[in-house]
Specification:
- With 322 residues, the protein is an alpha/beta fold.
- Helices cover 29% and strands 19% of the residues.
- Helix 1 packs across helix 5.
- The N and C termini lie far apart (46 Å).
- It binds threonylcarbamoyladenylate and magnesium ion.
Length: 322
């Protein structure tokens, strides 16, 4: 069997065997591809950090397959948690809660909390079930780079360093989960696929952590999710499209005149934010490979999924705001 295989029952059993034996398997979730290891095996988890070149102070998300697992891995679970998981799990909501002793320190970078989610993806859920352990998995990309939304992205970026990749096609949502800290006042640490507005309908107002505050979740680093080519967000509808440079455009909606661009990627034909999120990383991967000097990105409306897209764009640009 080769290192990258399309999903089948047999492929899944092989992948689960690798996880059980302390290996690393990349697998699809509904958001992006994850790089998984047994969350209960500290040595396997250390390998995730090595492969990603991820700083050891940046904790991982633990993926579970059934709600009961939450009660084994976390404590001080209150009504807010119950309401949220009832409504949104399985799905793209990661909760940061106080952890129990079961989880090795390395998973949580020594914090007393752990990030947990139940992915809404059949392959991911079956992999966790067959492995018989919770699976620690960050996005399957080198630290700071674009997240993978296809198995091919994973193969290109880290394929030679991991044990196996399950190819489950393109991920449905295309942008990472929303990270909500519930160890105190509810605070969004990373805007993501589940809009803040939806969370507020269930538990009332939540704070959105600003990057000016102390970095609590390292996903808040300014430069993150970055393509290898410099990216600039277009301000007030215009930009200085310098001639004699190869410039690409990441457009939210179709533009009437794109003659000045070497390559154009349109996120959504009719300005649909969910469609834009789904195409976002894939479009950036393609622009990155197009031999450009610079990428201009059109801002999207900052509501619902648009908040998550703008968060990724600002981090790709690497400026200190928002
Ligand atoms: O959609 C997703 O969330 C994907 C898929 C694979 O599940 N995973 C993902 O993981 O995006 P990663 O490692 O790329 O991002 C996890 C984020 C990071 O910003 C990390 O700092 C934060 O969650 N995080 C994890 N544990 C935390 C904790 N105990 N306290 C605060 N932030 C935490
Ligand atoms: Mg990531």
């Amino acid at each position: 069997m080769s290192k990258i295989e399309k999903f089948s029952k047999q492929v899944l059993l092989k992948a689960a065997e690798i996880i059980k034996n302390g290996g690393l398997v990349a697998f699809p979730t509904e958001t992006v591809y994850g790089l998984g290891a047994s969350a209960l095996n500290a040595r396997a988890v250390v390998r995730i950090f090595e492969v990603k070149n991820r700083p050891s102070f940046d904790p991982l998300i633990v993926h579970i397959q059934k709600r009961e697992d939450l009660f084994r891995l976390c404590k001080a679970i209150d009504r807010r948690v119950e309401l949220l998981i009832e409504r949104f799990w399985p799905g793209p909501l990661t909760l940061v809660l106080f952890k129990t002793e079961i989880i090795p320190e390395v998973v949580c970078a020594g914090l007393e909390s752990v990030a947990i989610r139940m992915p809404a993806n059949k392959i991911a859920l079956k992999l966790i079930e067959e492995s018989g352990v919770p699976i620690a998995a960050p996005s399957a990309n080198p630290f700071g780079y674009l997240s993978p939304t296809t198995a091919e992205h994973v193969r290109e970026q880290i394929g030679d360093k991991i044990d196996f990749i399950i190819d489950g096609g393109k991920t449905e949502i295309g942008i990472e989960s929303t990270v909500l800290d519930l160890t105190g006042e509810p605070t969004i640490l990373r805007p993501g696929a589940l809009p803040v507005e939806e969370i507020e309908k269930i538990i009332g107002p939540v704070k959105i952590s600003s990057q000016v505050e102390k970095i609590k979740s390292p996903g808040q680093f300014w430069k993150h999710y970055a393509p290898k080519v410099p990216l600039k967000i277009i301000k007030n509808g215009n930009a200085d499209f310098t001639r004699n440079k190869k410039i690409g455009l990441l457009a939210f909606k179709p533009w009437s005149d794109v003659s000045q661009f070497e390559r154009v990627e349109v996120l959504s034909r009719n300005g649909d934010l969910a469609e834009a999120a789904c195409n976002f990383f894939e479009a950036l991967h393609r622009l990155e490979k197009a031999g450009l000097d610079l990428i201009y990105a059109e801002p999207v409306p900052e509501q619902g999924l648009g908040r998550a897209i703008m968060d990724r764009l600002r981090k790709a640009e690497g400026v200190k705001n928002g």
